[in-house]
C-alpha cells in the first residue's frame, strides 16, 4: 500500500477538523440538554416521567453516535498523518477522490 500523491491532504485535513469542531459543538449541546433533563423538577405524573425517559434515551443514543463520529474523524486524521488516507482498507486500492469528497470518512471503495 503506497501513499496517495493525487490528493490535497491539507484540504481534507482542514475539512475533517471543521467537521470535528461542528460535531463537538453538537455533542456539547446534547450533553447540556441531557444535564438539564436530569435536573427537571416538574415531574407531575407518569406521562411527564415517561416523556423525560424517552428524551433521555434519545439523548443517550445521540451522544453515542456523536462520540463515535468524533472517533471516526480522529481515525481519518491519523490516516492522513500516516499516509493511508484515501486507501481502501479492504483492497488497498485508492478510493476515488469523488467518494472522499462526498464522504470524508470513507475507508473503503464502495461495493468492494
Number of helices: 3
CA radius of gyration is 19 Å
Low-confidence stretches: none
First-last Cα distance:
17 Å
> Got a strand count?
0
- Shape, per Cα inertia axes: elongated
Mean pLDDT over the full residue set: 89
Helix/sheet category: mainly alpha
The biggest beta sheet reads:
none
- The share of residues in helices is 55-70%
Residue share in β-strands: under 5%
One letter per element, helices H and strands E, the order comes to HHH
Task: Describe the structure using short key phrases.
112 residues; mainly alpha; 3 helices; 65% helix; elongated
Describe the structure.
- The chain has 112 residues and is mostly helical.
- It has a domain at 9-83.
- It contains three helices and no strands.
- The chain has helices spanning 9-38, 46-82, 97-102.
- It is elongated and about 60 Å long.
Write the layout of secondary structure elements.
Layout: H1 9-38, H2 46-82, H3 97-102
Task: Summarize it.
The chain is mostly helical and 112 residues long. It has helices at 9-38, 46-82, 97-102. It is built from three helices and no strands.
Amino acid at each position: 500500500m503506497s501513499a496517495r500523491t493525487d490528493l490535497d491532504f491539507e484540504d481534507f485535513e482542514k475539512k475533517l477538523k471543521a467537521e470535528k469542531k461542528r460535531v463537538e459543538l453538537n455533542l456539547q449541546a446534547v450533553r447540556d440538554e441531557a444535564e438539564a433533563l436530569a435536573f427537571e423538577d416538574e415531574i407531575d405524573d407518569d406521562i411527564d416521567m415517561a416523556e423525560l425517559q424517552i428524551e433521555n434515551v434519545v439523548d443517550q443514543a445521540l451522544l453515542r453516535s456523536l462520540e463515535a463520529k468524533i472517533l471516526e474523524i480522529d481515525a481519518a486524521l491519523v490516516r492522513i498523518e500516516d499516509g493511508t488516507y484515501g486507501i481502501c482498507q479492504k483492497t488497498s486500492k485508492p478510493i476515488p477522490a469523488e467518494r472522499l469528497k462526498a464522504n470524508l470518512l470513507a475507508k473503503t471503495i464502495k461495493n468492494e
